[in-house]
Amino acid sequence: MRVRIASLLTAGLFVAAAQGVAIEAHSAETDKRAILTTYSDIAHAGYEDSLVLGRVLQEAVEALVDSPSAANLLKARQAWLASRVPYMQTEVYRFGNAIVDDWEGKVNAWPLDEGLIDYVDISYGVTSEENPVYAANVIANTSLKLGGEVIDTTKITKELLQVDLHEFGGIEANVATGYHAVEFLLWGQDLNGTGPGAGDRSWTDFAKGDACTNGNCDRRADYLIVVTELLIEDLEWITAQWAPGGAAREDLLSGSADNGLAVILTGLGSLSYGELAGERMKLGLLLNDPEEEHDCFADNTHNSHFYNVVGMLNVYSGTYTRIDGRKVMGPALAHLVAEEDAALNDEMLGMLTATHNAMFDLKRRAESLESYDQMIGPDNPEGNAVVQMAIDALTAQTKTIEQVVATLGLAPIAFEGSDSLDNPEAVFQ
Question: What's residue 197's pLDDT?
């Protein structure tokens, strides 16, 4: 599959901006199990596309390590940004599918205490009451003493990162693997707060010999190679789970059709409300805290949020456009809801369109005026309002998803919640 990376970074990919959502007409009564098959096919295609672009990223990382240069660092960054486009569309599969939710923390966990991995600015601090490895700096140390335990870090291996360090001590901020660990190694810390600018790691942090900056360039390169290899393995695994005969697909298809529909709607409602509107957006807006933005080192959060919404559109409408332009489509929730209550389906499509348009406005602002971390900053009423508009659209959309659940005769679903939406005062306690 040949893919042009530059084309994946344009604003008009996958859906036309600020346009209504259209669905393919189905003349016959929609089969619920066919909906589950379409849903599985889109999952497989999305994860497979993520894997394809993950391998492009891996090639770019290897080129950077073999021949460190500003140009090769830029290519690796561009490949990382492109790899996020299909992956963020798959996050709608996380909630409701236990196989995906159990796996997801290895590849997309955030936020992370980056001092676990590499050097950090003095403003980061050296200790944390909550996290004993807050500033452990694995790259600079060949052993770590943690309480009565000594971990040998002489060689940076997959087992060290995935087993010994990732979520060490049960602390979710100890992220040693996944997209955001790679992101930190490619960009470094974003020290700009809510001001302009992303991370600005120099290519010389991977240089050989005397050209090396900040020490341990060989170990930093080793870490980047290993963590990227792990990402590829994880993407290979999840792609297989959604292939015909795969465990995730079979788990969905082996149960009742109504249970399968509930899984789909759980993903739509939980990503809309608690995860995206709440934890990823409203929390950072309440705190005016750039540490709460999703792709914080690369200043790519606007794209992460936007493609989450595209993923919801994919699932509800039963249409996904692959990275090479091919389409995956079939019977979907939209067809079933239209047969039960045409007005409700129109409302749902309208809500999705409104959410898409609000998020596209946010994306456009980020690419032309100010980054997402600036938008959520204090004393920025215009930027705050753009973020809040997207939050409001997601929240309204969730209420309509609840109506869909009821109209289809499914048991009520407890969508993922968030204190930032349900109990904002608790955020400040």
Answer: 87
